[in-house]
């Protein structure tokens, strides 16, 4: 027998190499076979519920890294709450209506014009369902457990019925109305848009300074200086606005008289090249009210009006006002009873009301209008500017403000209630409340109608004279029909077939053909909670920071409107995923990170570990280099699990376990460190600070376990007798830490912990996810921690000098070393307190040492003298058949 064969080396079938791309799908299949999700629900069914309501991702295309990032964050919450004893059902959802699906269907060769609305909707529905099926499998590949067989879809009959009922309750409270006012309009999508659907991008605009001729008052013949970056809206000009309290100046420049804001005159001199300037008179803006001017393009005289939206920051202080093309213009125009003129159609083409510009796309009309102003002498300056301008978030093309008849939900009527409800929410992201409340204060009434086909119909009938019938009871009847037959009947059935028997009308009715804003769809998704028998409001909404203007906002609006309260108790938001250089990902830059590829090559657990390693509240970065670093952390954790599993392979939890108080101080110290780790990790989970989980666990694995405890205890674990008390004490400590860290890491890397748990001797459950998180235990001996820290300072010195001795060829392996230690009284006291004075050589993994007291710690390394034990490789003064006394004794016991 060779002595090396008698060593009790770690043994486990848990493989060093993860092969996660192959193993994880197998583990997920097993989770499904044993119905793991149902079992954790059953286990906790009588406990306090915790509901994270899933904000529905859009059902179109493969998931991207942002999807993976967000869903993984949610899974951290779900798993950590479940393992903390809560009853945590998870109902995933999808947003399945809207323009992108219409566009995708059209791209596939479907000719919308050849189909009825109902036929087109059926094709859209089939496409959306196929996308849901694809994304569902991709989300499951991340390791996320939930009610995947019964997700909620915004196209479900029951979902739509509940949504219509919310609409009906808002009608009942007079919060829904139809009005003609300027709204965000996307010519590229041919539909109205809400603020949440707008994103700002850089755009080049035409900047012009023009002169409007005053035609009455003592300023007859003067010219109003006006600046605009939207020349195409000049056909809709019906007024010029000035601020009532600003000081304006009547001046002469190069022989021509003008009126402008006095504060801006120096800038205007420079921009317009005025030379000989004389100020003739100054006055408050209210002096100009109702002064008339001649439109520079049409035979139309319009007034100067007063508006406090006018600023003194740029332009001229006189604002071109077209009530049909701007929110401020609309509001001030309403005050002065101006017409809502909007000579642009659905496609962005100028209409007959624009005169000679009829048939031009609005951006092309810009140049014709500028040319005409130049020819008739009213153009003073023309340049271009680049600025942030609202764009359609789907087509990425500019939007316009355009007055059209639309359905609105009143925000003004419930604004204070919305703000109070927002203030009652717990905001995990500190600035979240301020951001949403500011949005609510500034938010205009919500445009909820869209001029598309694929969506939830607005269930309103019209009388013969065009008057809409806003009857909550009638709307509720339609909701019941939709729940049974689906919403396509709105387009397939005659109005008469949709009406209840009790409803009497004076004649045939017509139906609204517009659909609802998709944000109204998802904004009513909390109805799913009640339909599934779950508590309302939800405990948590967790989404991206863009949802302050989106889902957080629309959900709050509809819930406060119909229930008088917020649909969520707490909000957690995250930033966006950028590339390694902090750039937005795009195919053109070639910097897109595909989560499906990452999972295939490196594994979902590595991707999940990355999510837990970044500060999600801000924008985060991902790159190949960053993922290599994460993969290295994963490798260290996995290998530590493997070593610990091997260490306890011959350990029987029932018979070999040694309690904390009997383990000896070094083992107790490591157990205490684990207790401290547990407290920090559980607190991090409770506060959704997942980066704190990894910031605590990874160093614990790398420094406390691998580089220290598991390293120095190898001598006992490998060489002592199987049932040696110290060896069993070490195994008990390792078992506690292994069992505990497997549970602590399950929310982060569930595949790896599930796999490792399957090799754990004495396990109680089919999967680690059925376990409870480790209990909090107060550190039992704080003084020992203080002494240990003092000892570790000495250890750092020893390691440094061992490395220097190795470099100088004094020693090879550390077991060839003898340490001459001079230590302070404080250090000696620490060594004695933690009870290792007689075993310092084991703690430092050297063969021998001498110890004296001095004024400061000093370490000298020499080569150990004596004979090397052929079994444990320690150098001792004498051997017995080539073995040290300890190994000889063990061998005699083995025989």
Folded structure, characterized:
This protein has 895 residues and is α+β, with helices and mostly antiparallel strands. It has 4 domains: 3-14 and 617-780, Isoleucyl-tRNA Synthetase, Domain 1; 49-175 and 410-574, HUPs (Rossmann fold), CATH 3.40.50; 204-397, Isoleucyl-tRNA Synthetase, domain 2; 785-864, Class I aminoacyl-tRNA synthetases (RS) (hypothetical protein PF0899 fold). Helix content is 40%, strand content 17%. The protein has 29 helices and 31 strands. The strands form 9 sheets. Strands 5, 6, 7, 8, 9, 10, 11, 12, 13 and 14 form a 10-stranded mixed beta sheet that branches. A 4-stranded antiparallel beta sheet has the order 4-3-15-17. A hairpin with a 2-residue loop joins strand 8 and strand 9. Helix 1 (20-33) crosses helix 25 (750-757). The longest helix has 26 residues, at 782-807. It starts with 19 loop residues before the first helix and ends with a helix. The mean pLDDT is 93.
Which features characterize this protein?
alpha+beta; Rossmann fold; elongated; 29 helices; 4 domains; Isoleucyl-tRNA Synthetase, domain 2; ten-stranded mixed β-sheet; Isoleucyl-tRNA Synthetase, Domain 1; 895 residues
